[in-house]
Structure formats: structure tokens, C-alpha cells
Amino acid sequence: MASPSLVWLRDDLRLADNPALRAAMDRGEPVALLYVLDEESPGIRPHGGAARWWLHHSLASLRERVKELGGSLTLRRGPAERVVSQTVADIGAGAVYWNRRYGGAERDIDAGLKSSLREEGVEVASFQASLLHEPWTVTTGSGTHFSVFTPFWRACLALPTPRAPLPAPRALDGLTPPPSSDELDDWGLLPTRPDWTGGLRETWEPGEPAARARLRTFLQDDVPAYDRARDEPSAGATSLLSPRLRWGELSPFTVWHEAVEAHGTAGFLSELGWREFAWHTTFHAPDIATKNLRRQYDAFPWPRLSPSHLEAWQRGSTGIPLVDAGMRELWHTGFMHNRVRMVTASFLVKNLLIDWRRGEEWFWDTLVDADGASNPFNWQWVAGSGADAAPYFRVFNPELQAKKFDPQSLYISQWAADAPTEPIVDLAATRKAALAAYEVVKRTATQS
């Protein structure tokens, strides 16, 4: 009697270059695809609002593509270990395949499942699919993990060329009848009262086909100007691939090889490297979203939180044009240009003296590309407390940044034409206060 293969999908919502799916098909038995919405397992961080919107539409797209190929996508909700085990029992699966995850809580779940399923006689295998180089394969000469990007990326480039991407299946041998499934609409991933996602709908089309189309457009039209214009928020030179990689609608192997074939710039490829470095760091510091990587920053004397300042920052009403433009772009589109992300983050931490974790939480809720590594990693980089972090004394001046990267105010005019013009703080005075606070960290580190 046939024993079906179960493919457990996570942050790999695609058919092309999906090693777990390929392994299941190569096994030669019918294949069931499962996605579990797990918001209950210990340590699992629930998705933010913008991410939930993206997930809904990406799953809807994937479900239709799977159906067209003769398969079905089963949706179930609950603690992953329990749900996957129950699904295995429901369909009599003889093998379970998934692509690896690198967060601490996720690794614990996967390891527990792998052990328990194997004890029951089920074949279990996991695969490398979301990183070009798995975190434990890139080490310093002394065998430790890296804490600085440039030598990390140099070491990555010295490794063998990343494997070629796998083709998408032309057909799927699904189960008849398919396993019982939740209705996607019943998960309540889309906001309704109010529905604030109009800007997201105008900006994005989630799903693997749209991801592939965006990659082609970027490589054909935008790569030549990438290194020159990527820091200009009005230039439209960035790839806009970050949510596609975050949700696994594209694999990094596909992006890497197609970019190389299209003579993509070293600057663009290094952005893939920065993503790898964020996960490399998170693998070795899974509490990155809540704890300073550089523990001496625990001594930073954060003043009492000003709710009005935090709200002004969140709403894009600080009176600082570039900051307000970025925060309004974020609210409308679920995205913000990378240069402006650094400026808005620096303003929150170093001018408003608000703990970086507050900003990280807001970005987690409002970004469509927020993931468990890049979001906290980049916030710690700006705050000075992270790996290869910006020096504590580097305070981005948003006015100078605007003159340099938005000299004609095209970006500011697009997003913040009606924003307040009276700054809520004095940039020079707050910079001095930030430097004085960082001196406390410096003295504490020296005394310890």
C-alpha cells in the first residue's frame, strides 16, 4: 500500500527550487503539501499585521498553482509539532520533508519532530533552501562564527559556488481525496475593521509568479543603475525582492545565479550577503530581537519613554521631512527604502533616545519583509549594539541625508508633502544627549 510523502512548507512558499518538494517527488509516492500557521509554540513570534496580509495572499497564490498541477495545499493551524504529527497519522505518511529554518525556537521544533517521527518509523529529511551558506559552514580561521561582515562575506565568496536552482515540477501526484484543510479566510489574516491595506494592494502582488516577474524586471531594467542609484529613495533602483526572499517565493539560489548570468553588480550580490550575515548572526544569537548582542549596551541609560514622541515617529509627524516621508511610505506600502530605514531608525534611537526594541517591534508589525533575523539585526546595527554595528557616535543627520540622497526633494514631496514642519526635537541638542548617553556605555565597558 502506498505511503504518501508529506512536504511541510514554512518560509518557502514556492514550487521552483524547493528541495523538500523535489525529494518527495523523487520518492515516487503521492505527495501532500502542508502549511501550518503556528502562533502557539513556545518561542514562536506571531507575524505582524503587514506580514499576515502578505502570507494570506502568498498562500492563496500557491494554493492555486498547486491545484493546477494536480495537487492540493492543506492548511492547518496550531502548534507545529502536534499538527504535523497529526497530519502524518491522518494520511499515513511514510516520509516527511522540509527545508531548514535557523531561528532558535524553530530549530527546537524541527529537531523534536524529526526525533519523534523517526521513532515511529517515518522517514524524515531536511534540506538547505533559504540560505546560500548555512550558518555553521562559514567560520573564521579559528573555527568560530563571524562578527564582522566584510571577512564573513569574503569567506562566503571563497566557498564553492552555490548550487544551481532546481526546476519547478510540471505536475503533482496529489492525494485523492485530499487531506482535510482549514479555509484560508477563516484564519483572519486580513484586517477588516478597519481594512488598512489599500496601499499594500496598490504596491504588491504576492506569490511566486509575481516574484519571478519582479526578478526578471530588475535584472533587465534596473541592475545597470543599481550601484549608482540604490541610495536614492526616489530613483526606483532597488530590487524590491526582500519580501520575496523573506517568504521564500524566490530562493536565494535562483536570485544568485540569475543575477550572475545577467552580470549583476557586486553591490547587489553583497546585499544577499548581508541577509546571509543576519541569519549567520541570529543562528548563534537566537535572542537577537530582545537582547543586545554587545552586552555592554545593557548599561545604556534609556530615559523614560515619551509616548508622544514614539507616536509622532510612528505616524510620520516628527517635523523632520525625510523621517516623516519614510514612516509614511512604510505605513502606506509596508516597505521603506533601505537608506531611509537607517535614517528613521537612527532618529528614533539617537535623537528621540527611544530603545531600539520599540522601533524593531513597529517595523515587525508594519513591514511586509520583516523576518526574524534581518529586522532585529539591522536595528541593532543602527543602535550600535549589534554585529558589525555602526559606531555609537555615528548619528545619521536626516537633514544632511536628505540633501545628499534626495536633493530635489522628490521622495519627500511624494510621501510627506503635508507633514508637520516644526521639528519635535532639536537635532543638534539631541545628538549631544545621545553621545553623552553612549559615553556611559563606553565607561561601563572600560570599568568591567
From TrEMBL:
Binds 1 FAD per subunit. It comes from the Bacteria. Its cofactor is FAD. Keywords: Chromophore, FAD, Flavoprotein, Lyase. SUPFAM superfamilies: Cryptochrome/photolyase FAD-binding domain, Cryptochrome/photolyase, N-terminal domain. Transmembrane segments: none annotated. FAD binds at Y226, T238, S239, L240, L241, S242, F268, D369, A370, D371. InterPro entries: Crypto/Photolyase_FAD-like_sf (IPR036134), Crypto/Photolyase_N_sf (IPR036155), Cryptochr/Photolyase_FAD-bd (IPR005101), Cryptochrome/DNA_photolyase_1 (IPR002081), DNA_photolyase_1_CS_C (IPR018394), DNA_photolyase_N (IPR006050), Rossmann-like_a/b/a_fold (IPR014729). The keyword Lyase applies. Residues 3-132 form the Photolyase/cryptochrome alpha/beta domain. The keyword 4Fe-4S does not apply. It holds the Pfam family FAD_binding_7. One of its GO terms (biological process) is nucleobase-containing compound metabolic process. One of its GO terms (molecular function) is FAD binding. The record marks W302, W356, W379 as: Electron transfer via tryptophanyl radical. Belongs to the DNA photolyase family. PANTHER family: CRYPTOCHROME, CRYPTOCHROME CIRCADIAN CLOCK 5 ISOFORM X1. This is Deoxyribodipyrimidine photo-lyase type I. It comes from Microbacterium hydrocarbonoxydans.
